[in-house]
Amino acid sequence: MNRGVKFTGVPSMEEIKACPGTPSEERFEKGPVVAIECVQKIPCNPCEAACPFGAIEVGSSITNLPKLDEEKCIGCGICIPKCPGLAIFKIHKNYSEKTSLVEFPFEYLPLPEKGDQVPCGDRFGKYIADGKVLGIKNDKKNDGTTLISVEIPKEYFMEIRTICRGGER
Amino acid sequence: MKETQVVVVGGGPAGLAAGIEIAKSGGKVTVLDENKKPGGQLFKQIHKFFGSREHLAGTRGYEIGTKLLEETKELGVDVILDAPVYGIFEGKTVVYSKDGKQHQIKGDKIILATGATENTLAFPGSDLPGVMGAGAAQTMINVNRVLPGKKVLMVGSGNVGLIVSYQLMQAGADVVGLVEAAPNVSGYGVHASKISRGGVPIYTSHTVKRAMGDGEVSKVEICELDERFQMIEGTEKILDVDTICIAVGLSPMSEIAWTIGCDFTFIPSFGGHVPKHNENMESTLPGIYVSGDISGVEEASSAMEEGRLAGIAASEALGLYSEEKARELKGQVWKRLNTLRDGEFGEKRKLSKKTQISRYMEDANE
Q: Where would I find the 4Fe-4S ferredoxin-type domain in this sequence (chain A) (predicted)?
């Protein structure tokens, strides 16, 4: 039973759907977009300035939840490594007919390699399905937060958020 | 005896920020720290900080530490390291030891920025090697690059417990679980989510019943708690671990403030007894200021702001700033402090700070 982030450490699907950083179902259909899974009012706003398209708004009180303007967001993912909470994910639901692309921040070593088949997990790190590593971004400006994109079965685009640590399936 | 305008005790984020502000105003300042390196806990903070982007949010803690040190150097702040302060005597004479000798320095004003110390937790086996403070484990991995163990149980779900768990995993350890006596996670959800994604089970309403092992920890027994925090028999679980990290809060390091006679007040959300102070961070003893965790346990960002506030106020009192200029500068800091104390996690600290200041004012009006 998932009673929400305060009890389990992981936001529940209800919390994620209700948060202003989550794109609409229609927007997911249209192409790459970020999902900002920031559900608690903490004093933090670097995501707002990170977006070159002005698609993220926190506003004058820095404890406001970041609000995503889904029409302005092109899914570039520049904001992902700027989030100290590692709570932003890029999602391309219709990457192909049967697969989606999920990009997430990853701060563990060793890193996988492009083309690797990796076990992918949900927000609890529980194995969901295998994915194929399509991209690894490790630019200096990301300051140690690597971005990894994996191609995964489409039905899990709202679930898969990481590579299972330790490679467990 | 050496003399200066301001002596700052403690060279962590609060003390360095205070030193920087005094130097900026043209004041002469000496910062004393018992450690061999300045920066307090900042250099073990390898994660990116929260906060406002104008104030280094998204920057890793050790990088913030580096920036502070560069600034102290540029401004000519005198920093004396490896110099534990063991007393402050009449006439604001600070006594410390250095190179095995006793030294004295006299200041017109003194800023206490001594920080906080980790709380401990007693349970059968808690004296076994392998049981340690989470801060100790963090120093081992991030400063000394030594892994304290391979299989860790973390006790406490505040931000320290969550962050150190994450960093232990980054350093290559397995965190087999995190236990929290309360029914909910007390730190930021995003920190909890990081370790959850790493597969760490969070056991809320749980505690450690005992640690087991022959000469060192090899197993731990955890147990569920009822709503009155009593252990529920039959819910015990045994986990294989070689390390148990305790992250059950911090207490202000206030010994010096007590010995010189600062008035204290009890505020549990700030870690217990804290010195009363006014909006200038001045304690009930004129010319003695407090800032950072000693004035109430919070985090590095607010510690730096409080240090700035104390620094500006001390400079004003020394006549280095006009009243008008000081009001403007202090107003800016208070605005940032209030923002850091906003939201569901900050509200309580904002109220606590109000209470602490109002208790100072009550005394002043008597």
A: 30-61, 64-94
Integer CA distances (angstroms), A98 to A31, A81, A101, in order: 14, 28, 10
Q: What is the pTM of this model?
A: 0.95
Are B49 and A84 an interchain contact pair (Cβ–Cβ within 8 Å)? yes
> ω into residue A110 within 30 of 0, thus cis?
yes
Mean pLDDT of B227-242: 97
Pinpoint the alpha helices (H) of B182-246. 189-197
Residue of B nearest to A64 (CA): B343
Q: Which of residues 142-161 of A touch B (CB under 8 A)?
A: 143-145, 161
**b or e along B313-327 (b: 16 or more beta carbons within 10 Å of the residue's beta carbon)?**
bbbbbbebbeeeebe
Helices B189-197 and B159-170 cross at an angle (nearest 10°) of: 30
| Å between A37 CA and nearest CA of chain B | 9
Map residue B259 onto helix, strand or coil.
helix
- State residue A2's pLDDT score: 54
> Phi and psi for A136 in degrees, rounded to 5?
-135, 115
What residues have CB less than 8 Å from B233, skipping those under 6 apart? Answer: none
